[in-house]
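quick one, two chains, predict together pls
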Amino acid sequence: HPWETVTTAAMQKYPNPMNPSVVGVDVLDRHIDPNGKLHSHRLLSTEWGIPSIVKSLIGTSRTKTYVQEHSVVDPVEKTMELKSSNISFTNLVSVDERLVYKPHPHEPDKTILTQEAIISVKGVSLSSYLEGLMANTISSNANKGREALEWVINRLNAEIEEFTASARGTMRNSMAAAAFVEK
Amino acid sequence: MNSVGEACTELKREYDQCFNRWFAEKFLKGESAGDPCGQLFKQYQICVQKAIKEKDIPIEGLEFMGPSKGKTENSS
C-alpha cells in the first residue's frame, strides 16, 4: 500500500483484532514542529487478561500496563517514525520499539517498514542472551503489526465506499476517495 | 477505542474523528496550516490530564501542551 495509506492507518491502528489487549489510547500531546513534522505523544493502555480473582485482590487499576508512544510524521520526506516504550511500574523489564515507515524506493505503491526492539532487564540489554527466543516473538509480532494495519486499511476503504455511495458528487467525496482507493 | 479515563471517551472520539480527517485530507497533502481541531483537543486534554493524575500513571518527560500556544494550568 502507498505510504499515505499506511501512515493514515497507523494513526488509527487501535482497536484491531490482532491486538486485543490494547484497551485504551489517548493523545497526550500533538504539535507540528518548526520543520513541519507532526509529533504525537500517545498513551496506550493494555490489559493482559488477568483472571478476575486476581483483579479483585489487587484492584483493576493495577492490572493495566501502559505504553508511551512518540510518533513523528514528515509529509515532505514521507517518513513516519514511531518509538514506543512500556511504562513499567516495577522498572524491571522494559521494551523499547522503533518503527519507521517509508515509501518503497522502487515501487511507489508500496511502503517499507523497518522495526527494531530492545528488551532490557534492570537496564542490562538482553540482546545476546535471549536472541533465539525473542527473534521468533518479535518477527511474529512484526507480522501481526502488518496484519493489523491491513485490517485497518480494509476497514477504512469500506467506510470510504459507504461514504461515496451515499454522498455523490461533492468535493470532499472525491478528495477522500483519491487518498484511499489508490492501491 | 476507549480513553484511559472512562469519562473522556466521548471527547476523545470527537477529537479523533476531526484529527483523522484533517490528517488524511490536509496534512499528508502538505496543507498543514490551520488545524481545525484545536478546541476539541483542548477539552479532551483537560479530561485526560485529570484522569492520568487520578490514576497515578507515571509519565516522564512529557509536557501537556495544547496544539498552539502553551501550557494552561489546571488544578485537579
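The two ends of chain B are 25 Å apart (CA to CA).
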